[in-house]
Amino acid sequence: MKLFSKAAATGLALKSIYFSIREAVAYRGVRDANKDITINHGDMRHGTPGVNAALQLSVVWSCVRLIAETIATLPLITYERKVVDGREIRLVAREHPLYYLLHDSPNADMTAVEFWEAVVSQICLWGNAYCLKSYGAAGRIVALDPLNPALMTVRRSADGALSYLYADARGQKQFAEGDIWHIKGFGTDGLMGISPITAGWRSMSGATATENASASTFTNNMRTAGVVSVKEFLNIDQRKQMKEKVMGAVFGDSRTGQLQLLEGGAEFTQLSMHPADAQMLETRAFSVEDLCRWFGMPPSMIGHGTAVSNWGTGREQINLNLIQYVLRAYMVRIEQGIKKSLMTPVERARFFSEYSVEGLLRGDSVTRFQVYSTAIQNSIKTPNECRALENDPPLEGGDVLVIQSNLVPLTMLGKITSTAQTAKSAMLSWLGIKEKDDDHSA
């Protein structure tokens, strides 16, 4: 009977997981990669704000991509708080179900990097990100699936509870507050985040108009529209020969060059404004800086600026500014959202998730080992703890904290005062010679 009950429970758990994943995939939707991105998604050329239309601007694309990819590639670790010898410590909670979901693979279709890229980019563009939580038979979260923010409507009922109405081509479905993990961007009411695309559509429309003007100017090899005049009036054959033979030979295809023929002594007149008169380069440069403000992004981080701002110590300060004033806001929102929406009240007292910003040093070996050296010399970390971060095996004796003063064990600090005596004792011990008392030594 017990065996049957255990088998039934296992079957129920598998069935629950299967249907949860199937439902999540069904409501995630299918996108046509060949579809015109301006259809039903706004068109900056006509003053209509839209996320996919805004992504046609290289500045918006670069800002969103940099923020999303940087945060997505940082390790997100789940920790457990424990009290050892009266002191609170934290340990990596590898056995907690959320560790695998958040660090490795949140659902059956995505790696952690792909999932967090989608979530963070949704916060950057729509101001909100929604993830469907799928539960197993034991009530544990077994999958997190991002939903399309453009298809979600948030409502608050009379009793104060939130409900989420998700509508797509297959119809509408209403989710309870416990079924959706809602991550909000910057907002003013605490209920919904504000989309930078909607709030900044005037700036983005202006930038798009500048891009269109630039493309139009450089079309046809920068041939401006104009006219060519002759003193006499031409008949039909002469006019045809003038356009095809004379104008075509000198200017190429007259239709491409947008040239017109005027007769009777009319003079040549340029019909379009010269790029220098329109200050096109200055306008495009201003558009980059203007759009960067909507994402809090230093312009030099996306390749805009001078050599002074893009290299040397100036670049280091810009990188620090990016972490402190741009990325940190997104990371804290996610960390607090995990604790509030993905953990039970009991778990919140013991567990928490946190980004490891040190992951940004993965490509900087010099800085990384300088940090290790400082941590070891000041008794912050043991040599083996630093070796573990480099995926190196532990060494014997490497679990003892040392201090910069001769790198002696922390427990011996104050007992050993002479470097020469320490070296002498170690040498005699290694040779197997018993050290004589100072009073009887020669």
Automatic annotation (TrEMBL):
UniProt xrefs under InterPro entries: Phage/GTA_portal (IPR006944), Portal_HK97 (IPR006427)
UniProt cross-references to Gene3D superfamilies, sorted A to Z: 1.20.1270.210, 3.30.1120.70, 3.40.140.120
Superkingdom to which the source organism belongs: Bacteria
Entry protein name: Phage portal protein
Organism, as annotated: Massilia violaceinigra
